[in-house]
Amino acid sequence: MAEHAEEYHFDLDHVGISGDSAGGYYVLLTAAIMTQPELQEYFEVTKPAYDFAAYVTTCPGTDLLAMRDCLGAPGPAGYTAGRIGEEILNDEDLMSHCDLYSIINPETYPAVYMVTTPGDTTTGPETLKFDAFLTEKGVAHTLVSYEDEGSGLVHVFNITKMDYPESQKANADIVAYFDSILK
Questions:
Q1: What is the widest separation between alpha-carbon atoms in the chain?
Q2: What are phi and psi for residue 102, nearest 5 degrees?
Q3: How far is it, in rounded angstroms, from Cα 100 to Cα 71?
Q4: Could you tell me which of 18, 45, 75, 159 has the fewest CB atoms within 10 Å of its CB?
């Protein structure tokens, strides 16, 4: 982005990052990496010439270590654990650098905006657990949970069912959040 900022009229003071589900996890991990030189070194990341001004997640996975318990299990968690792989999930060094609950430094971790719904049985409970963790650690963040108004909200509802009124509201709220941060 920095290399093409002038060409594409990017304002590097107003860059946001967003992801859903596993991508939401990567947004949360990126927030930790961008604020901790030791994680940048471990992951061989060169911090960009700009900072992300906003971090947004939709129905993020947050508990990578819990995936170990799901290896071989039926359902979405077992499927995801299988895709990640036993070798990765059992790599203690890697997991010690990927576990959000142990790598987040409350003094440097940036504010994040998270979206969920009670109908998200895939990552909803994880998102609520992570919200409680951030609250306990005093990390600035926002969690918005959208109640089902008859549409049948599920995991990443606002991405997969964009025509739902609740999805349209969630997406408008995300845009408003970005606008408030990126102005």
A1: 49
A2: -110, -15
A3: 20
A4: 75
What is the b/e burial string over 66-102, where b = at least 16 CB atoms within 10 angstroms of the residue's CB? bbeebeeeeeebeebbeebeeeebeeeeebebbbbee
Is the separation of the CB atoms in 170 and 146 below 8 Å? yes
141 phi and psi angles, rounded to 5 deg: -165, 165
CATH number at residue 20: 3.40.50.1820
What gap in Å lies between CA 36 and CA 39, rounded to an integer? Answer: 6
The overall pTM is greater than 0.85: yes
Give the Cβ contact number of residue 138 at 10 Å. 9
**Residues spanned by the domain of 119:** 2-66+106-182
Question: Per residue in 66-102, pLDDT tens?
Answer: 888 888 887 777 788 788 888 888 899 999 999 999 9
Looking at the 3D structure of the chain, how many domains does it have?
1
